[in-house]
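Subject: for your reference before the review

Hello V.,

The reviewers asked for a structural picture of the protein, and I figured it would be easier to keep everything in one thread rather than splitting it across files. Below is the amino acid sequence we used in the manuscript, unchanged from the supplementary table.
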Amino acid sequence: MSVAAALPHHTAIILDGNGRWATSRGLPRLAGHRAGASAVRRTVEAACELGLPVLTLYAFSSDNWRRSSDEVGAIFGVLDGYLTNEIDQLVDQRVRVQVIGRRDRLPSRTRRLVETAEVRTEAGDAMLLRLAVDYSSRDAIVAAAQAYGERCGQEPALDRDAFARLLGEVERSPGVPDIDLMIRTSGEQRLSDFCLWECAYAELYFCDALWPDFGEGALTLALDAYSARQRRFGGTCERRLGETG
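And here is what came back from the structure prediction:
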């Protein structure tokens, strides 16, 4: 495929539009979240086939607790179903699952399923799938700063690399590279407190498709757009990602 020459090492997606998808069809919001879980399945399968090394999906923001208790419960029910029904396939696909974000506020069943998924997939070497659940980038940054303060007698002077390592520890996902491509669905154009540190030089791609309609075709379009970008990282290199030499 045309994206093969310049795959991002780390792709992240903000899953947006489940509610609007359902409302536009006269369905309850729960139907949108269920359809969103199907989009997760399609997208993970496509990412594996395309050879993406790391995929991070923003599944539940810490701010999403402000939604009605019924909707929050439904979202976690859908997440529980995904972790239960897809685990065997993820193992077969050699996908390693990591969940980033707070765990102390998760329902006990969800927490158990998260831990089980991580253990069962820990040998996966084809792709790392990170699910951001009860996640706030600003909270993670604060937690990393607090961790440094607690260890300042043992830690070396704080620099970007050292802080990135601390952030990886806080997120239970050490050694993950910064995000190369950030995708947001549903036409919204903001980061919504997602991976702010890791997105310092990310290419941003916004598409109009609502998340339940996302899949291999939409992912390939995003990757094609990424491969045509020029990434300078503050320098003067004019070479496009897909060019060689």
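For the response letter, the relevant points are probably these. The mean pLDDT is 92. The longest strand covers residues 127-135.

Happy to draft the paragraph if you're swamped.

O.
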